[in-house]
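Researcher: Before we compare anything, I want clean individual predictions. No alignment, no superposition, just each chain on its own. First chain goes here; please echo the sequence and then give the structure tokens.
Model: Echoing the first chain and its structure:
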Amino acid sequence: MAQGTITLTQRSIYIIPTRQGFMLAFVLVLMLLGDINYNLSLGYVLTFLLTMMAVMSMLHAFRNLAHLQVRAGRAEAVFCGDTAQFTFHFNNPSPLPRYQLCLVKTGETFWQTEPASLQFDVLARQDTEVVFPLPATQRGWLQTGRLTLYTEFPLGLFYCWSYLHFDARCLVYPRPMDDAPLPSGSSPDGTGKRSVSGDEDFSGLRKYIAGDALPRIAWKAYARERGLQVKQFTTPLGEELWLDYADTPDRNDEEKLARMTRWVLDAEAQGLRYGLRMPDDELPSSSGIAHRDECLRRIALFNLPQRRQP
């Protein structure tokens, strides 16, 4: 698999005649036999003129791909069942434009009736961004695999192609369940609220520790001969949830992951602080887009053999 930018050279470009090319070759052979048999001078001229046209068509097909520079861009994460959008950049350093380039998943050949291909042009001395769609059928990492870049320009007589195999991946999240209410909060009273040290609400007294601020000392308690004590305050952080894999009532893993995906999306939409507990992993509670994406990533890669970040 290639990384970075690759340049198409004569070693990586292949060319064969198309159906029309083979038919033209057969017709030219018949014309040549007729010219020889009947000694037709103008027939020779027409036969060799068409032959030269076919040879020039082959050269133009090769030039349409030669020295083209290709690099892969980033693909945004999608949900299972959606279409992943892989971005590729085609740079044409030559002063000649490249026409009728087609990008197709290897295995979907050019003689199919409706190949799932993408056709585009690359202007002279310009960089063209091409978005190649691939269906995301299962969670985890979706790879582009080997792609085929081909052209039949200019006359459709020759099929000229090259293979592109980049280390490009797209993360596919499980499809979120349609109806999955959030679980109850993690606090003992079920409200889901948690408090930490702060300066807003009085929460009680504790023993004095050397270094505590003097304004925090409870002087009234000291006057009652209860010793030096310090006032404590708390700041509510808002609602917090633990999204635990063990709390899902579903029967199989995929349904459990679909429910947890819905929980993460709903918890983030409601502005809650939430943590994630998986059978083999745990993510501390937080909030924000980065935290949401990390939770979804761990859910998507749960129990898969390849979990590394590309």
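Researcher: Okay. Second chain, same rules.
Model: Second chain and its structure:
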Amino acid sequence: MRRRDLVSMLALSAVPRGLPAAQSGPKLSSVIKKGRLKQGVTKGVFGRKIDFESQCRIAAELGCKGFDLTRPEEWPTVKKYGLVPTIWPNGPGGTIKDGLNRKENHARLEKAMHDALDQAAANGVPNVICFSGVRAGMDDRTGADNCVEFLNKVKAHAEDKGVTICMEYLNSKVNHPDYMFDHITWGVDVMKRVNSPQSKILFDIYHGQIMDGDIVRNIRTYYQWIGHFHTGGNPGRHDIDETQELNYRFIAQSIVELGYTGYLSHEYSPWPGHEPVAVLKKAMTICDV
């Protein structure tokens, strides 16, 4: 075997399994030029072939500030790369199907939420996610009342810790049939009645487009009740560029103009065949306004 061939073979064998060879090269350059909007990521934007630590490294090098929906055991890796674990995933705030609208869940979730608020505050995690749950025959008013009741029980603790409980706005038309918080006005009613600076809406732009549309007007109208944003292209919840119908540059510009200081995190999955890092670079560039 020639020396050149041996060196090439050894170099290839050093690439971690599951991580494309292209990602093991020189440090990536940040795509952020203005930085007025703090951008974050979720695991889905990287597809299935890039390991978690490499995801954190790539996100940080490209200029991301946060990493959404990571668990406590993953936070040391997130922080190693200077990223903020921006929102605690489902668990203490219920699940999409089994959430705060069921009183029978309250005792269990109340303890879990108090524990999560303590742990989030101690580790610099600014948000904890929660869900309304599905209707399953329950009328929307009763469900809203039950969610208000739960959030009122825990809001003082959230305020004391400076951690925001964010209820996610999801679509019931395509992805999450029967989900109760599927129209922005329902969630705004809940947040107005709870009336706490640490109880807000996670405004998922993709889901909002499917259910209500009028994205920028709704963001502007209900801004004071919004605590966090997710992105995703419609249709398909894929790349947020010209392959879909939303104008994310205008949306990002509108959010910045409102004085928003939280995070906008990318939660799309790349179109099949699209290279994840290239797609993320483009998404971040679009939202760097």
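Researcher: What stands out in the second chain?
Model: The domain at 28-287 is CATH 3.20.20.150 (TIM Barrel). Additionally, Confidence is low (pLDDT under 50) at residues 1-23.
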